[in-house]
Description:
The chain is built from 6 helices and 8 strands. It has helices spanning 32-40, 44-51, 60-67, 120-134, 149-157, 185-195, and strands at residues 12-15, 21-26, 74-83, 86-98, 101-111, 139-144, 161-165, 170-176. It starts with 11 loop residues before the first strand and ends with a helix. 31% of the residues are buried. The structure holds coenzyme A (COA).
Amino acid sequence: VIVDDPTRWSPVALRMDDGTQIRVRPIVPSDKPLLADGMRHLSPESRYRRFFTSIETLSPALLVRLTEIDYADHFAWLVVIDDEGCERAIAVGRYIRLPDDPTCAEVAITVRDDYQGRGLGTMLLQLLGRVALEHGITSFTAVVLPENSPMRALLQDEGITLHFDPDAGALRGTGPIAIDTRTSDLTAQFVAQLDR
Ligand SMILES: CC(C)(COP(=O)(O)OP(=O)(O)OC[C@H]1O[C@@H](n2cnc3c(N)ncnc32)[C@H](O)[C@@H]1OP(=O)(O)O)[C@@H](O)C(=O)NCCC(=O)NCCS
């Protein structure tokens, strides 16, 4: 059941530091082929870091779960580029509210390997924070493999501290969402377009 309206956010066009033009918009059910294609452009290491298994492709059932969302308890931003008139997904950031703590949501971010290290992950976490706060979610939690230094760094930069979680067999980071103190250049561009 859709709770919030994804068309509230029209696609926002942004320019990365190296000039790459991207668009950021909520994921929609018709994005299943884009997600499946994005998965094909992800290294085995990135897939493992995101899904904690050596998954190669997204099953039809998983594609449904990842694209048919309610935009309140479960929200996902998609970053796309234009490839000769075709959209291609290069990054996804999502949060899912925890059933046993409605003020907290688990976040997961994936950036295609060839676009990593350029600020997309940071922007996605910050943009997720903005939507989450509107829905009464005040903190984020994430499970991260110990060897995943980019994600550890990203979370720590956003004020999220990490501890070993024996239940998850990995690190868990939990921390409050503070959108006013954290705004990367890309996030600032996004916010400026919204206010226009
Ligand atoms: C983790 C991930 C989402 C980060 O996204 P990203 O767009 O590369 O991240 P950013 O460019 O915003 O960088 C965030 C921080 O990560 C760190 N970082 C980036 N690339 C790094 C690398 N190759 N090695 C170590 N640290 C790195 C930097 O410290 C950076 O902080 P800085 O701005 O202070 O330098 C991305 O690497 C990814 O998709 N990995 C595979 C899937 C995954 O691990 N998802 C997380 C599971 S919850």
